[in-house]
């Protein structure tokens, strides 16, 4: 079993497709298939179940993925230990686009002032995809709005953020009026859910809904008078100079958790980030 074969196995597991893994790695598909077959023959078990949509890990495959992540992590640690000038300690963080817009940069700015030999990568996606990324080892930890339904994870750090209703000055918010709701296209977006809840409580739940992929598009839509939305207060604070939008802070707060996979060997970069978050939490 070689590290190169394990990297191929990891790509197939993450992408749930032999062809997609081959394309990403720049290999021909039969080469990737043969490497997976070699691993299965060596271990004497099936690592993947094949289906019409691709492949999924067997229970044995899930076990091997955990070990693969640890082995590849140790290789990275060895490189950093032997030559720290060339190899920086990696730290991969996942977060939704909204969380990563303000809060994450603030945290990382303070963190990197203390630990400047860490190579940080932030991946943005919706909560469901972030959970999968954490499971497959694509990221070391994720910031999510709700961790209640996420299993096999430990909550390392939590904070509460205020939320703000944003409305266009051209069409100010009136509880008795019908409003178009400007929301993120991710149905699990917590800010979308809060806006729909407000709509229902205010008896205009039959309102039209316009979906956008990005936070910038949502804010611009409100700015142009298309409708109303809800965003984090930190983001609203940076936009208070926008004269075409009315900002109204709401009484409810949203909890954000930083999760890591439990029983997972932690990289040195992750250990330092956890220590930083815990110290930061104690200062509150």
From TrEMBL:
Domain HTH lysR-type: 1-58
Pfam families: HTH_1, LysR_substrate
PROSITE patterns xref list: HTH_LYSR (PS50931)
Entry annotated with the keyword Cytoplasm: no
Domain of life: Bacteria
Keyword Cytoplasm: no
UniProtKB keywords: DNA-binding, Transcription, Transcription regulation
Family annotation (InterPro entries): LysR_HTH_N, LysR_subst-bd, WH-like_DNA-bd_sf, WH_DNA-bd_sf
MF (Gene Ontology): DNA-binding transcription factor activity; transcription cis-regulatory region binding
Family, per entry: Belongs to the LysR transcriptional regulatory family.
Name assigned to this protein: LysR family transcriptional regulator
């Amino acid at each position: 079993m070689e590290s190169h074969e394990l990297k191929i196995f990891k790509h197939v597991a993450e992408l749930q497709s032999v062809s997609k893994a081959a394309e990403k790695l720049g290999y021909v598909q039969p080469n990737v298939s043969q490497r997976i077959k070699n691993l299965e023959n060596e271990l004497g078990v099936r690592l993947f179940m094949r289906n019409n949509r691709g492949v999924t890990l067997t229970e044995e495959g899930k076990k091997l993925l955990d070990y693969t992540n640890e082995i590849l992590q140790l290789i990275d640690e060895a490189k950093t230990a032997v030559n720290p000038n060339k190899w920086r300690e990696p730290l991969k963080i996942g977060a939704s686009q909204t969380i990563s817009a303000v809060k994450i940069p603030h945290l990382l700015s303070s963190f990197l002032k203390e630990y400047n030999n860490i190579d940080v990568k932030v991946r943005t996606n919706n909560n469901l995809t972030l959970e999968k990324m954490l499971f497959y080892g694509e990221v070391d930890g994720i910031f999510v709005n709700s961790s209640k339904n996420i299993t096999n994870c430990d909550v390392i750090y939590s904070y509460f953020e205020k939320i703000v209703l944003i409305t266009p000055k051209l069409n100010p918010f009136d509880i008795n009026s019908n409003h178009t709701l400007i929301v993120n296209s991710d149905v699990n977006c917590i800010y979308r859910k809060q806006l729909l809840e407000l709509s229902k409580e205010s008896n205009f739940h039959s309102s039209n809904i316009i979906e956008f992929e990005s936070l910038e598009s949502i804010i611009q839509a409100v700015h142009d008078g298309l409708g109303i939305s809800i965003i984090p207060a930190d983001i609203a604070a940076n936009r208070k100079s926008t004269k075409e939008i009315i900002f109204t802070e709401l009484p409810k707060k949203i909890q954000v958790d930083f999760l890591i996979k439990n029983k997972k060997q932690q990289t040195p970069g992750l250990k330092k980030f956890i220590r930083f978050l815990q110290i930061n939490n104690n200062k509150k």
